[in-house]
Amino acid sequence: xxxxxxxxRLAWSAAALLVAGVAVPATAAAGPDDTSxxxxxxxxxxxxxxxxxxxxxxxxxxxxxxxxxxxDYTVGAAGRLNMDKFPMTGSYTTYSVDKNxxxxxxxxxxxxxxxxxxxxxxxxxxxxxxxxxxxxxxTILELAQRNGLATGSVTTAELTDATPAVLASHATDRSCxxxxxxxxxxxxxxxxxxxxxxAEQSVNHxxxxxxxxxxxxxxxxxTEGRHKGLTVTEQAKKLGYQVVTDDKGLKxxxxxxxxxxxxxxxxxxxxxxxxxxxxxxxxxQRCVTNNPERKAGTPSLDEQTRKALQLLExxxxxxxxxxxxxxxxxxxxxxxxxxxxxxxxQIGETAALDRAVKVARAYAAKHPDTLVVTTADHGHTSxxxxxxxxxxxxxxxxxxxxxxxxxVNYSTNTPGEAQEHTGTQVRIxxxxxxxxxxxxVTDQTQLFGTIRTALSLx
Length: 458
Prior knowledge:
Elements: H1 4-19, H2 39-47, E1 53-59, H3 64-74, E2 88-93, E3 96-97, E4 103-104, H4 109-118, H5 140-146, E5 150-158, H6 162-168, H7 198-204, E6 209-213, H8 215-218, H9 232-238, E7 242-244, H10 247-252, E8 259-262, E9 278-279, H11 301-316, E10 325-331, H12 333-339, H13 343-366, E11 370-376, E12 383-385, E13 394-399, E14 405-410, E15 426-431, E16 441-443, H14 445-455
Parallel strand pairs: 1-10, 1-11, 2-16, 5-6, 5-10, 6-8, 7-8
Antiparallel strand pairs: 2-15, 3-4, 9-13, 11-15, 12-14, 13-14
């Protein structure tokens, strides 16, 4: 009994030291695969106030359950993913709002992405515009450009999908992807004095590096404005973009001109496949790690990330250029395969993002003035449940790389319907200048402030 107040004082002191950026010795034994930064490195990194570069990695729908599932399957329960090794880890809340600014407790990717892109909440389905008055809100990428930084966006979704769209476009509805998709955005059309579709806006912004899927959107013809009659891809070429469609083209892309990589007609096919979850469960299965639907020559997310960093670094060193860049990287189909109750597709995409995290952290190790942040836009449906459980929804049993069976359950909607997002808080982890700002429980709108402060954006 007498030792409890002393223990409480110790716990309080350790927490205070951590917030202040002072190293605190670990009290628990490190796991067998632990290679996270040492406490002295944590203090040194968080003490730096200004970042030259920011790399933001988003796992779409990558809640704690999705991370745990990928960890258990690939590196084992006692193992650690690359995203587990950040020195600073917290959680943030993800709710959106209605048109009156009242909480909507389960967000979609458009509203959540708008949160960190602009620092403001909006209604589900809206891209970087206000919830009530539908006015454009300045994004972190736009601020970076105004301050002379190089910018990039990499995704495994269509480049017009919600998460990449929030950075370089403003749309009443996320469905307004290409010139032929403007039905839900009448006031955003060029004829009404608006900025046009998400695809048109993305290239008009002259983002230095745009890599992902969605070629079919960019191949739509523009029907209004000065680029009328051209496809968006042709518009991009006219604006100076190098357009590439496979890994060879990406390798040959050179700095000095912006790069538009379109690696699939729609979303980039996932890396892994397997049997989807079913009512009553599935027989124990191993995932197929070479999806036959993934076209040869499709660059992996880590390859795209590595090339994007190369191009952005080359641009910032050009004559008269202000050093620094902002890069967002999205593992999009964690979410898409969660919606489809496809555990293998989901795990494979989490593993793919984790390799991109490794690339980002390796870059930061050589460039310690780089802030690296990994987080998600919202939680999702998958849950690890006991093998003997008989859940009412869809479930699948996997055989992990440890040779153990693991049951995953999907029950956020009626079987036969797409599984739903959840309103839970999600992980945010960071290293580098201002990384301490992710500690504790924050809101995703505060990530905007963290990046803006780190880069000293005016």
